[in-house]
Amino acid sequence: MLTPVETTLGSLLAHQAATNLLFDNGAILGISGLLRGLMSAPSRNNFFFFTGMALSWVPLKLLAPQVLPVYPDWGGGLKSILWTATMGALVGWGTKCSNGCTSGHMLCGLSRLSSRSLVAVGTFFPTALITRHVFSALNPSLVTSTASVCPIDAPCYAPVYPDTSTTATLVGLTTTAIVLNRYLPPLAARKHSTEAGRATAWLTAGTTFGLGLLLSGMASPAKVSAFFDVLSPSSLLPSIDLSAWDPSLALILLFGVVPNAIAIFSCGGLDKTKPRFVERFGIPTKTFKDIDWRFIAGAAAFGIAWGASGVCPGPASLRAVARPAWGLVWMTGFYLGGLLGW
What transmembrane ranges does the database entry give (predicted)? Predict the structure, then answer.
């Protein structure tokens, strides 16, 4: 179901996390790179960020557990293990070759008007949609069920709204997270040191981003999968059927990507300013001319896994906290797949 309140608030949180991390620490909020770094070259930066993401479960679990994602049953049998590891490996290989996923390329890259990110998104998004359609038509058991987010007695695009109490809780939680994300890092820097400010910025960005994924629906494999359900699964031949489509995640473009772009270009662009805690921005230097077949193949591989499973690195990191056995298998696949990338 369309969740305009929750997804809008979650998108604003994702925007705040990405923008503040950029202007505080000069860093791109690219989860696949951060996760790969945590596995292969752990640092204070990625440790604090993923600690923050893990902590994001706590306030929603305590205050609004009804909005948390419902994960599909995972039996842990050989078939499930192989499928999960394969999905992780495709994401690991794909994001290594294409230098990013939905967070780095879509949330952060499109807002900087990066041509490479535009090509990546233009590759992995339609690939995910086509993969979802083909798998649903040929073998629905392979793809994530959307039963938990789409009722059988109404179209999935119909909006639903939280009650007044839940809305007030979510607005208050969002406001609190944004305030802490903005003001805790400079406070830590003033009271202690610049290094403390940097560490706090990584921690609060992780918590804020995790809350954004959980609240927006990006952390829910079923909700992501329903976003791809624009074609009828009754035949391989494509025909539009929006009855099972949940358009919620389109709001991430409006309330996540667009505000990021406004923040960047309202100051004249990143070449006209500098981050608060470091000397310069760590912006990728590769251009459109550097795109090769590996980049395209990687984006397509990521799209296949995203469309088949509804999972990308950020949501996988959150799911691993709630479902450690699943997380161990997926993360192993992600790591090994990344080793094969160029």
Answer: 205-228, 248-270, 291-309, 321-341
